[in-house]
Design a protein that fits this description.
Blueprint (H helix, E strand, L loop, with lengths): L2 E5 L2 E4 L4 E8 L2 E12 L6 E6 L5 E3 L7 E6 L4 E6 L8 E11 L5 E5 L3 E6 L1
Length: 121
């Protein structure tokens, strides 16, 4: 069974920084895209950033220039470095991985449990 475990959320003042980490574990054959999404109460989950297995990245316009996504393929881990944080970045952040388990011929999306990021003004 595959699990995605996130860490690194918390409370920070506006202008500050946080680094999120997410590690996938279990019987994993391969991981394609990994990414971060975020969700406010009562709102839809939205893309923050994604990164492919070869390192190509894509960011939401609202975080470009402030957030950086990276991954360590050997550790099945994806990171999100968040700088110049704003109060409007306050959300629950979710890790996502599109991966193939060893017992399957197909890839599926898996999600972490979410980590709260709160930015105070």
């Amino acid at each position: 069974q595959v699990q995605l475990v996130e860490s690194g959320g918390g409370l920070v003042q506006a202008g500050g920084s946080l680094r999120l980490s997410c590690t996938a574990s279990g019987s994993i054959f391969s991981i394609n895209v990994m990414g971060w999404y975020r969700q406010a109460p009562g709102k839809q989950r939205e893309l923050v950033a994604i990164i492919t297995s070869d390192g190509s990245t894509n960011y939401a316009d609202s975080v470009k220039g402030r957030f950086t996504i990276s991954r360590d393929n050997a550790k099945n881990t994806v990171y999100l470095q968040m700088n110049s944080l704003k109060p409007e970045d306050t959300r629950v952040y979710y890790c996502n991985a599109n991966l193939r388990e060893r017992s399957s011929r197909f890839t599926y999306d898996y999600w972490g449990q979410g980590t709260q990021v709160t930015v105070s003004s």
